[in-house]
Design brief:
The chain is α/β, with parallel strands linked by helices. About 50% of the residues lie in helices and about 15% in strands.
Length: about 325
């Protein structure tokens, strides 16, 4: 009896020490936390996975299962981009703290023109590896969707997973299928903000011929979306023209398949021209994808497939 109590006490002491070491490493080592999450993901299939895209070092999300940092353009990380050029220390930090978009079937090397779409493609082609979640999402390292109202200061400093509550978010997604953000396009000229159509906004900020080509291609490949094209590009109203969303897996796959069919065909026609531009306008396929997402979502809404929920966004 006494011997059994001693053995039990020793076991409890060992377990307590292991838990203590785990807690210390979890809070002090991001590399350890990432590895634990990877191991856990191999046994646990999360219902929601939101990928936060990084070009350079920035604040990491709180440790948890929902938000996964991913470096975009890792295959060409030594090349300059719009944000400058990564140092050896920058690259080491990114490799230590997140996965990249350059393994297996990937288009990481296209990142300077495809922008965050290289992460879209990687996630699409490696869905089983990421746990086969029922819902998938994308945020940027410096901009997220506000899915749980909270005090802004507390939100940034204390809220785990940026205030995400998986159960509440699942209820929203089961009802709406897609959660995203909409904004009213505008033109900023001579110190004045002028509300505009999405088409005029693109003409003001980017190369309008790119959008014209994509519109022609959408009408040719997906003629059923023609009315949605006009509603998104020419009606003056808030539009979900941004590459941030959380949506049902089957819908995401439909969007990705149509999106990349368009982008790859456009690349054959104007890829060389786009790659000759400055760093900002080289991101053309990313800009075009934002407009196509709004068109695709408008079409799905008109069909009654989704009832999208539009929520605020926040810079971190």
């Amino acid at each position: 009896m006494r011997k059994g109590i001693v053995v039990f006490a020793v076991i409890c002491l060992v377990v307590a020490n292991l838990l203590l070491v785990h807690c210390v490493l979890w809070n002090c080592s991001d590399k350890y936390a990432v590895k634990v999450q990877e191991v856990w993901a191999s046994f646990h299939h999360p219902k929601i996975k939101i990928f936060m895209t990084y070009y350079k070092p920035f604040r990491l999300p709180k440790k948890g299962e929902i938000v996964q940092p991913i470096q975009v353009g890792r295959a060409i990380e030594t090349e300059p981009f719009m944000g400058g050029k990564l140092s050896d220390e920058d690259r080491a930090w990114l490799h230590e703290n997140m996965i990249g978009d350059d393994s297996g079937d990937n288009i990481s090397a296209k990142n300077r023109s495809f922008d965050v779409l290289t992460a879209y493609y990687w996630v699409w082609k490696h869905y089983r590896e990421i746990g086969n979640p029922e819902y998938i999402g994308f945020w940027a390292h410096s901009k997220i969707l506000i899915l749980t109202p909270t005090n802004k200061r507390l939100f940034n400093r204390l809220a785990p997973n940026y205030g995400l509550d998986e159960k509440k978010l699942l209820k929203l997604l089961e009802k709406h299928k897609v959660v995203t953000w909409a904004w009213t396009p505008y033109i900023y000229e001579d110190g004045e903000t002028i509300i505009s159509s999405a088409y005029d906004n693109y003409r003001h900020d980017h190369v309008i011929e790119d959008l014209d080509r994509m519109v022609d291609m959408v009408k040719e490949k997906y003629p059923e979306m023609t009315d949605a094209v006009h509603a998104v590009l020419y009606d003056i109203k808030p539009q979900p023209i941004w590459n941030y969303f959380v949506m049902e897996k089957e819908l995401a796959f439909d969007y990705f398949s149509k999106l990349f069919a368009l982008m790859f065909e456009l690349e054959k026609n104007i890829g060389a021209e786009i790659n000759a531009r400055d760093y900002k306008q080289r991101r053309a396929f990313g800009f075009l994808a934002e407009r196509f997402f709004a068109i695709w979502l408008e079409y799905q809404t008109r069909k009654g497939v989704v009832s999208p929920l539009f929520v605020p966004q926040q810079y971190l």
